[in-house]
Amino acid sequence: MTNKEKKNDLGILKINNEVIASIAKNAALQVDGVVGIKSGPISAVFDVLRKGYHHKGITLDISENEVKVGVTIIVKYGVMIPDAANLVQEKIRTAIEEMTGLSVSEVNINVADIQSENHQF
Question: What is the pLDDT along the chain (121 residues), one digit of tens a residue?
Fold first, then answer.
């Protein structure tokens, strides 16, 4: 599925998966200590084989009534990873629900890397 459709009295609203992924990415990057979203070469394989949507470190599994989100993040060295991950989950859920009206049932976080003080992106 490439779009989420919502029908109302005036017509149909289509929200592209890239829009939902962009909302998730921007929400994650607002969290102090999160310095990036990571995608790797294996992403192309997942794009072909995986059910749902997978692109640039964001995965979406959208059903009729809910959205499941997966995000692979890079955090700054010294950050309390569980605290940052919990905040990312909350920010993503809130942003998607408020901006799209969709219900978010899961936000799964994968911490893939830590940025040291000497490393710049």
Answer: 457 777 778 888 888 899 999 999 999 999 999 999 988 655 444 444 445 666 688 999 988 779 999 999 999 999 999 999 999 999 999 999 999 999 999 999 999 999 987 655 5
Identity at 65, one-letter amino acid code: N
Q: Which CATH number fits domain 19-115: 3.40.50.150, 3.30.70.1350, 1.10.10.60, 3.30.465.10?
A: 3.30.70.1350
Q: What pTM was estimated for this model as a whole?
A: 0.82
Angle, CA of 38, 39 and 42, to the nearest 5°: 145
How far apart are alpha carbons 62 and 85 in whole angstroms? 22
